[in-house]
Amino acid sequence: MAYKGWEMPEVKVKFVSLIRDYTGVKETTINIPKGAKLKDLISILEERFPGLKKIKEKRINIIVLADGQTVHEDSQDISVYKKIVLLPPASGG
Amino acid sequence: MPTGKIVYNINEVFSELNKLSSSLKKYGYEGGGALVIFIGYVKGVVEGKKVFSLEYEAYEPLASEKLKEIALSEASTDGVLDIAIYHLVGELKPGDPAVYIAVYAVSRGEAFATARRVLERIKKEVPIFKLEKREDGEFWVIGDRRRIRRELSQS
């Protein structure tokens, strides 16, 4: 399906720690279809960075921040946000 | 005043710890009778393997905000007078302190319980990550115990 520019909002995605290892870059900018859900974003990112598939393979429960807020629902429309951050589970202390 | 922050230099923590004796007096007059200090430090052996270093990374400013939030919310516990949390980041060696938690309370029960709760919350809620460099390779520590061998992406 072809999308027009305005239907594909631009979003900046940051990768932290282990996830940065899997992509090989700290951040990227991508266009995602309007109304895209988290799984759509992940599919687009996996196409660009195949290393990201290891997150599922290794069953790592990543944390997703959208404009600073944690994304809890898979059904949430994330195309409305400007900045997404993918983080692994915390391991401080 | 409850404090929670990421620090990049251990001297910053030492200067805070030097203030402890005067703080005891201050909190003593406010009814305090217990100070519990927890110091978490880097292990030199994990899973039977020698550890060279532990590289801590914080996602800022969120990590400092979360530390502050934990300090503020736990300091409102009944019987707790004040809390200070300092978490170091960067490359630390075995025996280096990584996290300091100080809890001033009316008595030992609240002090010990709160210090423990603060530590558990730091481990789960604060975006701090660590890479363990040891004799058999490099491992990302996931959550409290899980380790994933480091493999750099080909993409």
Q: What this model shows, in words?
A:
The complex is a heterodimer of chains A (93) and B (155). By secondary structure, chain A is α+β, with helices and mostly antiparallel strands. Chain A has helices spanning 18-23, 38-48, 54-57, and strands at 10-15, 27-31, 63-66, 69-70, 83-87. In chain A, strands 2-1-5-3-4 form a five-stranded mixed β-sheet. Chain B has a single domain (3-149), classed as Aldehyde Oxidoreductase, domain 3 (Alpha-Beta Complex). Chain B contains four helices and ten strands; from the N terminus they run βααβββαβββαβββ. The mean pLDDT of chain B is 92. Chains A and B meet through helix 1 of A and strand 4, helix 4, strand 8 and strand 9 of B.
Outline type of chain A:
globular
- Cross-sheet strand order for the largest sheet of chain A: 2-1-5-3-4
The count of domains of chain A is: 1
* CATH class category of chain A: Alpha Beta
- Distance separating the two termini of chain B: 48 Å
Main β-sheet description of chain A: 5 strands, mixed
Oligomer: heterodimer
Level-2 CATH architecture of chain A: Roll
Taken in chain order, the helices and strands of chain B follow as EHHEEEHEEEHEEE
Per CATH, what is the topology of chain A?
A: Ubiquitin-like (UB roll)
Largest interface: A-B, 25 and 33 residues
Quote the beta fraction of chain B: 35-45%
Number of strands of chain B: 10
Could you say which structural class the secondary elements and strand pairing of chain A correspond to? alpha+beta
What overall geometry of chain B do the principal axes of the alpha carbons give?
Answer: elongated
* Low-pLDDT segments of chain B: none
Percent strand of chain A equals 15-25%
CATH homologous superfamily designation of chain B: Molybdopterin biosynthesis MoaE subunit
Find the structural class of chain B using helix and strand composition: alpha+beta
**Radius of gyration of chain B, CA atoms, in whole angstroms:** 17 Å
CATH architecture label of chain B: Alpha-Beta Complex
